[in-house]
Amino acid sequence: MNCLIRFLLLINVVCWWGFGACGVADEPAGAEAPRPGQPQEGEMAGYLLVPHTKVSQDYNAGFSMYVAAWPLLQHYPGDRFQTGLFGTWMFAQYPDDNHKDKYSDIEGGLGWWRDTRFATETPKFIMGGVARNFVEWANGPGAGKGRDWDKPSGKYGVAQLSPWILWPPDGLNLKQGTCGELLGYGYLPLPLTEPKSTTNGANVPTGNQSWTLFLNAGNFRGPVAFFTPNFWSRAAITDSAVSGEFLDAKPSQPNKAVQMETQYVPAWQGTDSGGQLYARIAPTGFPMSEDGTSPVVHRISAYSRKALWDGVREWFGGGAVASGRIDPSTAAVHQFTGQGGATWQIYKPPVPREQKVPIGWSTFATPAALDAETFGYRWDQQVTTRAGWGANPLIQLPEYFRMGQAKNGRPQWQAVAAAEVPAETGLAEVRFERAKRPATEPYVTPEEPDSCWKVPGPKAGPFQAFPGDGSVVTYYWYRFADQPALLNADLSDVERDEIQRRAELLHREWTREREYLPAPARGQLADIDPALIVTPPAGLEIGYVPIVTRQGLAE
Questions:
Q1: Distance between CA atoms of 285 and 398, rounded to whole angstroms?
Q2: Distance from C-alpha of 496 to C-alpha of 489, rounded to nearest angstrom
Q3: Which residues are 78's β-sheet partners?
Q4: What is the pLDDT along the chain (555 residues), one digit of tens a residue?
Q5: Cβ(377)–Cβ(368) below 8 Å
Q6: What string of DSSP letters covers 9-25?
Q7: Pure H helices in 374-422
Q8: Of 180, 53, 167, 149, whose CA–CA distance to 528 is shortest?
Q9: CA 346 distance to own-chain centroid
Q10: Which residues pair with 528 in a beta bridge?
Q11: Rounded (5°) CA angle 300-301-306
Q12: Phi/psi of residue 307, nearest 5 degrees
């Protein structure tokens, strides 16, 4: 995942959407137009914006939401493809909401990324924790910035909690063919450790919030993995001015942007003999319900500390067992306004931002509150079509566009039928085919006999799993507190024994069949790839977790 690009594009969205000093050029000047019969490769990128109501700042202990999962493109186009489906950015809560020089958050979600090695049309899920100013990021157990284990850069930032699910470093797979079902996910803090007065020997405190990913899928429910508090706090070792300013210690900001971020969809541009510019995008679809609408975001909830923190804290201290089920009364649910925005643009890179011309999204898509807790789209059926290339029906967006003007006189790509595009543009001959998988290096973890992967080492394995992306995943069973992430979390032996005790309590009581996140009021739940649902070996049912050590192409 290229989190830096994500941040910079977010800044561009703010500039573009506000028009102000950033502006939008009156015409795409400076870009050399393709010649008739010689179409040029381009791309489509931008954001879809989902406005919703704010809730009280008291709901500052995490969130959850349900988002649709579907194959955005008919064919996976290769490793230039980077786009998320609908998701959010969860920041720490600051009195002035000022993130200057301390940008840090949890983002990630469903999507495809340029460093995805085993991609298919079905999206994967990553956790996407960003340490201060992108110095490192953590995408899941054993997954982070880069692939150099001499510079872990976040690859030890997430610890496995669940004994029933595998997390491949390439991302958590959904069941192949998922098409419009909802994945429920969210992050809530658990008190798995105690606060520390030092961090890696420095006079910098570390808080005790372990932000934990909870999933609600058709075949799995419950906590999966968590960001170690040390992942956030160690950024202050070199700058004490930001001590205590990150998610290990700070509550979360309950009011978050919800958007769909697209960084690349294949597109081509062509010109007719009169100089008129046309464009064609790869077949792009959205999920479709029985009434022809596209529900894409459902039930965004923000939680108070009564949701889990208070009860779990008492339980770990010797009190009554906390069930893990979140009482809906501890949540505030954001409402949808029925409004929305889009900044999708088609252009030929590299061009300055002001020369990227938007498509006329509102001419064929209408954002809508399908109910108070569900955001989606209604479509102009004269312009969009029903597509049959998904496991379930999809709405296919217009494929062809002509350069024109919006009502405000600014340049705009306007949807046209294929019959309206002159053959001399060459666009009808363009083919958007599934990319052939290149030779792909496997993900591997350190093999040195004295590494944290070998000492104290696993208790059982190796085992293998075969998810639907064509890879083979090798994994071992480690004692929870002996997994590499916790050996790199600045915990003493005593502290690791205590976190082991707490994990064993969770393993005994919080099974994957129980209810945790409040259930959706509509739709069907997506499934995790069944190959990633595992059962602990006999004798290792409590207090042990599966840790992936390698992922490569299946032979």
A1: 9
A2: 9
A3: none
A4: 344 444 434 433 333 322 222 222 333 444 567 878 789 999 999 999 999 999 999 999 999 999 999 999 999 999 999 999 999 999 999 987 777 889 999 999 999 999 999 999 999 999 999 999 999 999 999 999 998 999 999 999 999 999 999 999 999 999 999 999 999 999 999 999 999 999 999 999 999 999 999 999 999 999 999 999 999 999 999 999 999 999 999 999 999 999 999 999 999 999 999 999 999 999 999 999 999 999 999 999 999 999 999 999 999 999 999 999 999 999 999 999 999 999 999 999 888 877 899 999 999 999 999 999 999 999 999 999 999 888 999 999 999 999 999 999 999 999 999 999 999 999 999 999 999 888 889 999 999 999 999 999 999 999 999 999 999 999 999 999 999 999 999 999 999 999 999 999 999 999 988 999 999 999 999 999 999 999 999 999 999 999 999 999 987
A5: yes
A6: HHHHHHHHHH-TTT---
A7: none
A8: 167
A9: 23
A10: 174
A11: 170
A12: -60, -50
Q: Is the pTM of this model over 0.85?
A: yes
Instruction: Give, to the nearest 10 degrees, the angle between helix 493-509 and helix 309-316.
Output: 110
In this structure, what token pair is assigned to residue 93? 């809560």
Q: Which of 295, 259, 263, 106 is nearest to 185 (CA)?
A: 106
The residue type at 108: G
| Number of helices and strands in the chain (H, E) | 5, 33
Counted residue by residue, the chain has a size of 555
Token output for 550: 């390698």
The token pair at 86 is 């609908």
